[in-house]
C-alpha cells in the first residue's frame, strides 16, 4: 500500500508548475513579440509582456513576405515551411522504410557475415555528422544534387539507430509465429507486410515523430548545399531574418519562429498516444 503524503504531492506539483512555466515563458514571449511592431520592441526596455495590436500585419508579412513599415524587404515563410515539410516527411518516411527492410533482412535472412554487416551499420553511430559531412557534400555535388530536394533528403535517410531498434524488436517475435506463417505458405515479404508491419506500428509511430522533428529542424546540411533562396528551409529563413538586414524586424522574426514551431507541435499532439505507447509498450 502506497501512503499519500500531502506535502510531497504539493512539492511535486510545484516543481511541475515551475518546469512548465520555464518552458512556456519563452513561447509566450515569442507570441507577444509577434503581435507588436518592431518600433515598440526596440523602444521599450524591457519589452512589454502584454499583446499588441499589430498581429495581423506581422503574420501577413511573415507568411507572404513583403515590405515592412521600416522599409525592409523580407522573404515569405510559407514556401520555406513547405520545403521544411517536404524534408521532414521524406526523411521520416525514408528512414523508417529503409530501417524496417534492413532490420528484416538482418534478422530473418541467412547470409554470410550477417553479424558483420549489422555491426558495420551500428558503428556508424560513432561517427558524428561533422565527420561525414565533407565527403557527403562532395558526393552530392558530383551528382548534381545541390539545391534540390533529393540533395536535401537522400543523404539523411539512412538511420543506424532506427535499424537497431527494429532489429531488437524483431528478435522478440516468437519463432512459432514465423513457422506458422511459413506453414500457411506466406513468403518473406508477405510475412513482413502482414505480420511484422502491423506489430511494429507503435514503434513506427514513435520513430516517425522523432524523425519528423529531426528533419524539420535541419540547419547545417541545408546551409551547405543550398545557395538558392527558393530551397531554404524555415530554420535557415529565421537565421536570414537575423543577419540578412542591418535593421532586424524582431516582430516578424518572432512570428516566423512561432510559425516554425507549429508543425512539429501539431505532429506531437496528434501522435502523442502512439508515441508514448511506442516508447513504453513492446506490444509483443
Sheet having the most strands: 2 strands, antiparallel
**Strand line-up in the sheet with most strands:** 1-2
The CATH class name of the domain at 77-235 and 264-280 reads Mainly Alpha
Strand content: under 5%
Mean pLDDT across residues: 85
Query: Oligomer, anyone?
Result: single chain
Number of β-strand runs:
2
**Total DSSP helices:** 15
Helix content: over 70%
Q: Briefly note the CATH topology name of the domain at 77-235 and 264-280.
A: MetI-like fold
Order of helices and strands: HHHEEHHHHHHHHHHHH
- CATH homologous superfamily label of the domain at 77-235 and 264-280: MetI-like
Radius of gyration: 24 Å
Please provide a written account of the structure.
The chain has a two-stranded antiparallel ribbon with strand order 1-2. The two termini are 30 Å apart. The chain has helices at residues 6-34, 38-43, 55-64, 77-108, 114-123, 129-142, 149-153, 160-171, 175-183, 188-199, 201-216, 220-225, 234-243, 250-270, 272-280; strands at residues 66-67, 73-74. The protein contains 15 helices and two strands. By secondary structure, the chain is mainly alpha-helical. Helix 4 (77-108) crosses helix 8 (160-171). The chain has a domain at 77-235 and 264-280: Orthogonal Bundle (MetI-like fold), CATH 1.10.3720.
Amino acid at each position: 500500500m502506497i501512503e499519500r503524503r500531502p506535502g510531497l504531492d504539493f512539492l511535486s506539483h510545484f516543481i511541475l508548475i515551475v518546469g512548465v512555466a520555464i518552458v512556456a515563458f519563452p513561447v509566450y514571449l515569442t507570441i507577444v513579440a509577434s503581435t507588436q511592431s518592431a518600433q515598440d520592441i526596440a523602444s521599450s526596455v524591457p519589452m512589454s509582456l502584454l499583446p499588441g495590436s499589430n498581429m495581423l500585419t506581422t503574420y501577413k508579412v511573415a507568411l507572404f513576405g513583403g515590405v515592412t513599415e521600416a522599409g525592409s524587404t523580407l522573404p515569405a515563410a510559407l514556401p520555406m515551411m513547405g520545403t521544411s515539410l517536404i524534408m521532414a516527411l521524406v526523411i521520416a518516411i525514408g528512414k523508417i522504410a529503409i530501417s524496417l527492410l534492413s532490420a528484416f533482412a538482418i534478422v530473418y535472412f541467412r547470409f554470410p557475415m550477417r553479424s558483420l554487416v549489422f555491426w558495420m551499420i551500428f558503428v556508424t553511430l560513432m561517427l558524428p555528422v561533422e565527420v561525414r559531412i565533407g565527403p557527403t557534400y562532395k558526393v552530392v555535388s558530383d551528382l548534381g544534387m545541390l539545391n534540390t530536394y533529393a540533395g536535401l533528403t537522400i543523404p539523411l535517410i539512412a538511420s543506424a539507430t532506427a535499424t537497431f531498434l527494429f532489429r531488437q524488436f524483431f528478435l522478440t517475435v516468437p519463432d512459432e509465429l514465423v513457422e506458422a506463417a511459413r506453414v500457411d505458405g506466406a513468403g518473406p515479404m508477405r510475412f513482413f507486410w502482414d505480420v511484422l508491419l502491423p506489430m511494429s506500428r507503435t514503434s513506427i509511430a514513435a520513430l516517425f515523430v522523432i524523425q519528423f522533428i529531426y528533419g524539420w529542424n535541419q540547419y547545417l546540411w541545408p546551409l551547405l548545399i543550398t545557395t538558392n533562396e527558393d530551397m531554404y528551409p524555415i530554420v535557415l529563413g529565421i537565421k536570414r531574418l537575423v543577419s540578412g538586414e542591418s535593421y532586424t524586424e524582431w516582430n516578424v522574426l518572432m512570428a516566423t519562429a512561432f510559425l516554425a514551431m507549429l508543425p512539429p507541435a501539431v505532429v506531437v499532439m496528434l501522435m502523442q498516444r502512439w508515441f508514448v505507447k511506442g516508447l513504453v509498450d513492446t506490444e509483443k
